[in-house]
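User: I'll paste a sequence; please echo it back and then give the predicted structure.

Assistant: Echoing your sequence first, then the prediction.
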Amino acid sequence: MAYTSKIREIYQGQIKGMQDAGILKQERYIHSTQAADIEVEFPTGAPLKKVINMCANNYLGLSSHPDIVKAAHEGLDTRGYGMSSVRFICGTQDIHRQLEEKITEFLGTEATILFPSCMDANAGVFEAVLNDQDVMISDRLVHASIIDGIRLCSAIHDTFKHSNMEHLEEKLILHADKRFKMVITDGVFSMDGDTAKLDQMVELCNKYDAMLFVDESHSSGFIGKTGRGTHEKCGVFGKIDIITTTFGKALGGASGGCVSGRKELVEMCRQKARPYLFSNTIAPVVVSGVLKVLDILSQSTERRDKLEINTAFWRKGLTEAGFILKDGDTPIVPVMLFNAKLSQDFSRDLFDEGIYAIGFFFPVVPNGAARIRTQVSAGHEIHHLEKAIAAFTKVGKKYEILGKTKQEIIERYGM
């Protein structure tokens, strides 16, 4: 079918509708390295503006660490720019094996397999290890990439209410007749910043003979006493059957991900996971950088400890200013605004004040749960956070939401 003027008009109308509603997403162009202080072009063609970045996944501040950049250069010089192949043909280098071994040790698992991204890992793992005799039981707030992977698998899919262990147990009893049962959750939930109850989930999985899958993308490197992740924090280190995580957040911030867990499950991914079989290998420059990240994390918890201090400071400052925050103790701190347009207007005003933080609204978060999702980094200094709190407070006063309840904000701005 030709791309007719009628088709074009329909899409143009949809885009204009989003624009008129004030919810059209617009890209901002960073003209610097990823750090606490960045230079941004917004809107397109505007002069560059120096702002404090409060919305990156750069939790440990390692995205531009000189030792990691140096390691990446060395990887480029010694192993080349790219592999031009998938792993099982001629795309596996010695450093890929080294990284898999190091990740296995870091996460306390039996084996690891690398993927081009954690989204690819989540897209491939379920189809590789389950079939139509099995059931997947997921938390209702799991990440979008997990949902996409679930959709590709022939196993039955059911859900349980967010972090509700009684409801999870009901579902495990309901599906007792299935060949395999797999409970699926995030370690730290990316939109709300709360932590899964992995200790209770392990108990339930043991009781009802189920496997446990955890996506640790927003926890690897900084959650837990030594930054191993949510399973360390919850006291179930080494007891998770499948972990997926990313190298695109705290572990360097570039790209790549993995499936790590029971060796038989990892081998099934190596044999059957389509994103692994049909995607190019992670570039050597990225592998070399992540290897250096793991070296840095094994030497000290200094960055993880600083991040914890920064997070507590940030939460306290916003709470005292009168904002409504989602409960939690992770570096993901959502400032709840409830109205989509308000979240966009608030974000633009923050940018004018020198603070870079993005508004989230449906379908990224549930309808009526719009927010500014802030993310704290070990790269932030206290002066960054103080300036950001002052800016949030100024904008909050403008929209008269400080100290207001959820209902009062909704009555003023709508859902």
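The mean pLDDT is 96. The longest strand covers residues 332-338.
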